[in-house]
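Fig. S4 source data, part A: sequence.
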Amino acid sequence: MGVTVLPYIDQTQTARLQEAASANIQTPKNTDEAVTTFKECLASAERSVQAMAVDALLAASNSGAVSLDTVQQILGFTPQTDAPVDTSPVTDTPAISSSSATNSTTSSGSVSSPENLEEYFKEASETYGVDINLLKAIARQESNFNPSATSSAGAMGVMQLMPSTAKGLGVTNAYDAQENIMGGAKLMAQNLKKYNGDVSLALAAYNAGGGNVDKYGGIPPFKETQNYVKKVLGYYQNSNA
């Protein structure tokens, strides 16, 4: 008696293929195609991570000097570069001449600032309705009240305005302390209005740009920006204590 051996058919796999066909789902025809699809997904994920790194670097550059530590934290490795990177620490001593330093004002309930800048902060505060101590707190963090400060990213003056930002604010000479402080106050007033008086979000926008605040729905997940907001708020809150 002859015996016919029928080939085994995996009905489960057949059913899955039929379901995919009826749903118009494109299934890989072979292993190579499956690998290619996986690689494309992986590449897309990597691009998303890189995009966030670019956002973070832009935020760091908007805030002023981009330190070596900042680059390492964002990119996740130690870069070897010939490009100049500002790694000098920010001190609590105003970066002004010794003759001016002797005339600095220090009063309780306010952020200390050089006496020759006091009238500019007062004018800016009254013109744009921004708390004078908040403006001083920003200036302390940005440049330590140095009208001649220039970051490696190109930010200028007391309030560290980027060239394009300064131009948009009507600042013609960013190294003129009065113009610079007025410009910074105007920008901060715009941010406070946009974010309904939320000082934290306004500061985040000052540092990282309003686009990033809007994109992430709050303070961006950049260590540079988060530290910036924390430090400026600390100076500001201490002045109002």
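Fig. S4 source data, part B ends here. Residues 46-100+112-239 form a domain with the Lysozyme fold (CATH 1.10.530.10).
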